[in-house]
Design brief:
Elements: E1 6-9, E2 16-23, E3 29-33, H1 34-60
Length: about 60
């Protein structure tokens, strides 16, 4: 999932800092700082659970 940390420009906040490369939901590599990655991960996890709950509702017919 990640490559080791290096110094680069975060694609989200545009600041130069310690960044790592991550695979995004579209399988493209993203260079993010730790705080932007935490925000990105929280949004992805929230969407995953929303989708899971909706699928479960459809499956049980609610």
């Amino acid at each position: 999932m990640t490559q080791g940390p290096n110094t680069g420009v975060c694609i989200s906040c545009k600041k130069e800092s310690a960044t790592s490369h991550y695979h995004g939901s579209d399988s493209q590599k993203m260079e993010l700082c730790k705080s932007c990655y935490d925000v990105y991960l929280a949004k992805e996890m929230l969407q995953y659970w929303k989708d899971h709950i909706e699928e479960e509702k459809r499956r049980v017919g609610k």
